[in-house]
Amino acid sequence: MGFRLQFIGGGKMGEALLGGLCAGGWAQPGELAVVETFAARRDELAGRYPRTLVSDVAQRGVDAVLAVKPNDIEAAAGGLRGLGVPRVLSIAAGVRTRSLEHLLGAGTRVVRAMPNTPALVGAGVSAVAPGASATDDDVAWAVDVLSSVGATEITSEQQLDAVTGLSGSGPAYVFLVAEALIAAGVAEGLAPGMADTLVRETIRGAGELLVRADRPPAGLRADVTSPGGTTAEGLRVLEDAGIRDAFAAAVAAATRRSLELSGS
Fold first, then answer.
1. Containing domain of residue 240, as a range?
2. 149 and 204: one domain?
C-alpha cells in the first residue's frame, strides 16, 4: 500500500487536518505521512498517530498539503521540487499560486486554501481557489481534504484576501467580543467564572442556532429583540457606537494586510 497524502509541516493546522482525515476514515493506516523538521514535534506526532509515517523527508510522487508558515514556504516548496509531486494544496496565508507554481516547478498542480482556526475542533470553514493548471478534480480533492475539519467554499484566488479578512481573521473578532462581554459582566457584579461560562455558552448556542436555523441573522436578532425591552436597549447602544462600521473597517483592514503580505 502506497502513500496517499503527505503533510509538509506538522504544526497545529497540519495536525488538525491530519486528525480530521484519520477520524473520518479518509485514508487507510499507512497511507498518510507528515514531514516535520523539528525532532521534538516529530516525536509528539508519532506518538499520537502511530500508523502515520512521521519523518523529515518528503515522499516522492505523493500529493502534498503545504501546512507551513508563509516565511517557510520557499524552503518547503523547494524541497518538493523535482520529486514528481502531482498536486499540492497550500494553506499558507498570502502566498499566491503563481509563486508556488514557480517554486514547485512544472508538472505540479496547485490549489490554495484559507482555513481558519476552528478547524482545530472540526468546526472550521475554508475557501478553496485553483491555480492556473489545477483541474476540477484537483479542486474536488482539496475540498475533500478540507471537509474533514469543517465546511468549504470554492472561490477565485482574487477573493481569498477578502476571505482572509472575514473568516480567516473572524475567530479573533469573536474572541474579542467574548473578552469584552466577560469584562462587562464582571463590571455588573458577576463572578468572573460565572461571566466566563455565560459568555462561552451564549456564543456557542447562538452559533449553533445561526447555523441550524434556516433564517437570516437579522431575523434571528429580531426574535430576541422586543420593542422597548432590554435587548433593544443594548442593541441601541451598540448601533450608536458604530459597531457595524467597526466590523466593516476591521475586515477591510485585514483584507488590505493580506494583499500587502502577498505583494499585490
1. 170-261
2. no
Can you name the residues that pair with 89 across neighbouring β-strands? 65, 111
Name the domain count of the chain.
2
pLDDT of residue 1: 56
For the stretch 99-111, pLDDT in tens is 999 999 989 999 9
Q: What is the 3-state secondary structure (H, E, C) of the chain?
A: CCCCEEEECCCHHHHHHHHHHHHCCCCCCCCEEEECCCHHHHHHHHHHCCCCEEECCCCCCCCEEECCCHHHHHHHHHHHCCCCCCEEEECCCCCCHHHHHHHHCCCCEEEEEECCHHHHHCCEEEEEEECCCCCHHHHHHHHHHHHHHEEEEECCHHHHHHHHHHHHCHHHHHHHHHHHHHHHHHHCCCCHHHHHHHHHHHHHHHHHHHHHCCCCHHHHHHHCCCCCCHHHHHHHHHHHCCHHHHHHHHHHHHHHHHHHHCCC
Provide the CB-side half-sphere exposure for 189 (13 A, CA). Answer: 0
User: Do 9 and 34 share a structural domain?
Assistant: yes
pLDDT at position 93, please? 87
Query: pLDDT by residue (tens digit) across 136-155?
Result: 999 999 999 999 999 999 99
Claim to verify: residue 11 and residue 129 sit in the same structural domain: yes
